[in-house]
Amino acid sequence: MINRVVLTGRPTKNLELRSTKSGANVCSFTLAVDRNFKSKNGEREADFISCIAWKKTAEVMSKYVKKGSVIGVDGRIQTRSYDNRDGQRVYVTEVVVEDFSFLGGADKDSQVSKNNQSSPNQSNDPFDSSEPTGIADDDLPF
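^ that's the sequence the OP posted. Answer follows.
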């Protein structure tokens, strides 16, 4: 079976790190993901997707991800249920974030992910350079 989710969006608020009773770090947030079409009014709509990150991913996200920054998340969908204080059964569907990347926006220069924890001001993109390439137009094959 395949359960894989890849989303690009913006967190609706700054992320806060919490800990469970057993000491596991956790970070819950809502990711606003634009739809690919506009409404009849000509406005772009968004879906607001519940996400949760655990352990080291939660630590790094809470430290560097800010409200409005464009991030990509990679994870899986999880469903669960619990009884609230009124005794009613509540069902929750959320994305469990296993990896993430900064894609621009508020922290455009940040390049941090669970598997690639470089400093926020260091870019690993070989094409992101203010230095000239030294390639003349005559050297290009097109």
